[in-house]
Amino acid sequence: LLSKAWSLSDKEGLSAVIYTQLTDVETEGNGLVTYDRDVVKVVAERVAAVNVGNLPPVPVIEDVVPTSLQEGALWRYCFDQPEDAWSDVDFDDAGWSEGPGGFGAESTPSGVVRTIWIADAIWMRREFAWSAGPRAIPMFAVNHAEGAEIYINGVLACQVEGGVAEYEERDVTREGAAALKPGINLLAVHCKQSAEAAYIDVGIFTETPG
After folding, report:
1. Tens-of-pLDDT digits for all 210 residues of the chain?
2. CA nearest 145: which of 172, 163, 165?
């Protein structure tokens, strides 16, 4: 937070940041001090240092596979259970439909629906180019109505349960990250839904230490 604030002070003229929740409350634990004010959870010397601009290097964030939040990305998709090898790189998806994300019902309150999806499940495939360096840490940006499975080149790279109302960061498994290769890769997604607020959209970004 303070790293972002200092960068905005240089570029946008930001002059102050106010953090209003100094202590934990009954249902939240993100205060600087515990609810009973008995334990200070931060290192005072470090807090003093960052408040005068003594900051660690800021990670570099880069969109590798943008979500469809700003602009619809084309996916191959189907609503009927495909063959078991549907997430593999060499699977023939020529018979699948093609459309822009996000996928969901018109009544969905979050995300941007560009292709209607009201069936019980959806299977999606999308190619992307990968050229990130060895220090880049891949992460998923996911907005999902219910449980979803995400594959990279046929390898399960993330599994999420339940539903969310916004895009969230999700870790890529070690196996999924190892499946990435220079050049063209395949991102495959399976998502299910049983409510009226169906939605699925997935992207990949990288975080490189500063």
Report:
1. 666 676 677 666 777 877 777 898 877 788 889 988 899 988 888 888 887 878 777 788 999 999 999 999 999 999 999 999 999 999 999 999 999 999 999 888 778 999 999 999 999 999 999 999 889 999 999 999 889 999 999 999 999 998 888 899 999 999 999 999 999 999 999 999 887 778 999 999 999 987
2. 163
For residues 146 and 168, give the distance between their C-alpha atoms in angstroms, rounded to a whole number. 13
Q: In angstroms, rounded to a whole number, what is the distance separating the alpha carbons of residues 122 and 146?
A: 11
| Integer angstrom CA distances of residue 127 from 80, 119, 187 | 21, 24, 6
pTM of the shown model: 0.77
For residue 109, give every residue at least 6 positions away whose Cβ sits within 8 Å of its Cβ, in sequence order, or none.
Answer: 165, 197
206 - beta bridge partners?
62, 138
- What are the φ/ψ torsions at residue 168 (nearest 5 degrees)? -125, 150
Do the beta carbons of residue 140 and residue 202 sit within 8 Å?
Answer: yes
| C-alpha span between 131 and 154 (Å, rounded) | 19
Count of CB atoms situated within 10 Å of the CB of 25:
10
For residue 97, what are its two tokens? 């439909």
Q: Residues of 119-156 as b/e, b for ≥16 C-beta within 10 angstroms?
A: eebbbbbbebebebeeebebbbbbbbbbebbbbbbbbe
